């Protein structure tokens, strides 16, 4: 799935580790990712955490998407910062799951993200008559 993720790869996001319900990714904050306050735009931090979430929740096989997500910004990230996002599965039930992602700069927490996933049933398209 990550190999086909053009948006994340265009930002230089790297998949470092992945396993059942887990993923670890790395991203460097570039000049184009900072806002008028000269800190990383929250949308890029959300996208980074969401990518880690996507890698973790899709590790089980069926196509899985976000049903919802929240993020808390804890500290600012700046141009040149190397960030690591670690996603961990908290629970899966039926076709749903809950995942936590911590975004860190070294040992400092930058953001905490919680994603809620939903596995999609396979759909077959009907052929035209």
Q: What is the spatial order of strands in the main beta sheet? A: 1-2-4-5-6-3
Low-confidence stretches: 124-129
Rounded to an integer in angstroms, the radius of gyration calculated over CA atoms is 16 Å
- Shape summary: globular
Task: Describe the protein's architecture and organization.
The structure is a single chain. Mean pLDDT is 93; it is low at 124-129. A hairpin with a 2-residue loop joins strand 1 (14-19) and strand 2. A 6-stranded antiparallel beta sheet has the order 1-2-4-5-6-3, with helices on one face. The chain has helices at residues 6-10, 42-57; strands at residues 14-19, 22-28, 64-73, 82-93, 96-105, 108-119. The chain contains 2 helices and 6 strands, in the order αββαββββ. It is an alpha+beta fold and 129 residues long. The radius of gyration is 16 Å and the shape is globular.
Topology:
Layout lengths: L5 H5 L3 E6 L2 E7 L13 H16 L6 E10 L8 E12 L2 E10 L2 E12 L10
Antiparallel strand pairs: 1-2, 2-4, 3-6, 4-5, 5-6
Feature tags:
single chain, 129 residues, six-stranded antiparallel beta sheet, 6 strands, 16% helix
Outline:
The protein has 129 residues and is of the alpha+beta class.
């Amino acid at each position: 799935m990550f190999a086909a993720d053009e948006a994340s790869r265009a930002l230089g996001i790297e998949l470092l580790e992945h396993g059942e319900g887990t993923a670890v990714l790395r991203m460097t904050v570039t000049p184009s990712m900072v806002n008028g306050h000269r800190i990383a735009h929250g949308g890029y931090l959300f996208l980074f955490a969401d990518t880690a979430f996507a890698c973790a929740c899709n590790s089980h096989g069926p196509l899985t998407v976000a049903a919802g997500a929240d993020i808390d910004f804890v500290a600012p990230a700046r141009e040149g910062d190397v960030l690591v996002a670690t996603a961990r599965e908290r629970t899966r039930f039926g076709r749903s799951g809950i995942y936590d992602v911590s975004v860190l700069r070294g040992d400092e927490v930058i953001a905490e993200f919680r994603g809620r996933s939903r596995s999609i049933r396979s759909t077959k398209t009907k052929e035209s008559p």
